[in-house]
Specification:
By secondary structure, the chain is α/β, with parallel strands linked by helices. The protein is about 50% helix and about 20% strand. It contains five helices and seven strands, in the order αααββαβαββββ. The strands form two sheets. It has a five-stranded mixed sheet, with helices on one face. β1 and β2 form a beta hairpin. It starts with a helix and ends with a strand. The relative contact order is 0.09. The model has no long low-confidence stretch (mean pLDDT about 80).
Length: about 170
């Protein structure tokens, strides 16, 4: 019994109760009513509990089914609300980008990119700290740093940034 299957079947169950019958629930889920009926039967068998009273003309939740519905439907509703809110943010990038770099990489690699980056993402504040001395970019709250290869701590994720020089981008988040 996999967790995803449980969540899918529980969601299907909430749709059957919410919409009042298998046909409407199946349509909203994009499945055949008979397939949905089998899923609910499987769920009832796994839970060893009858969740729905069914006849050829009607359906109603049992006491256990109603209790389960009342407890889990708000959770699925909350998930749907959060996904919708996340969708509202899609395509919008905002916040603060903190970069730490030595002097040469800042002037030759980062600054030339900042103007076009800010044009594409105007809601982002870019903060660049130029420092030739080593510091812990994670502890200092930077999103990434640019350093010569020899100045990278062993536990950092390092990505080679330029071909002819030994510079890399260090990502800490």
């Amino acid at each position: 019994m996999t967790t995803n299957r449980n969540f899918n079947d529980l969601y299907a169950f909430t749709q059957v109760v919410k919409l009042g019958n298998f046909s409407r629930a199946a349509q909203s889920l994009g499945v055949q009513p008979s397939a949905l009926s089998h899923r609910i039967n499987d769920l009832e068998n796994r839970l060893n509990t009858k969740l729905l009273n069914r006849t050829t003309r009607s359906m109603s939740p049992t006491e256990a089914g109603q209790r389960l519905y009342e407890r889990i439907a708000p959770m699925f509703g909350g998930i749907q609300e959060e996904l919708a809110a996340l969708g509202d943010l899609r395509g919008k990038v905002s916040g603060r980008l903190r970069i730490n770099a030595a002097e040469n990489p800042a002037y030759y690699l980062i600054y030339p990119q900042v103007r076009s980056f800010l044009a594409a993402f105007p809601e982002v504040d870019v903060e660049i700290l130029i420092s030739n001395s080593w510091l812990d970019i994670v502890a200092q709250g930077f999103d990434f740093g640019v350093r010569p290869l020899g100045d990278v701590a062993q536990d950092m994720v390092a990505i080679k940034q330029s071909g002819g020089h030994r510079r890399i981008v260090i990502s800490c988040k």
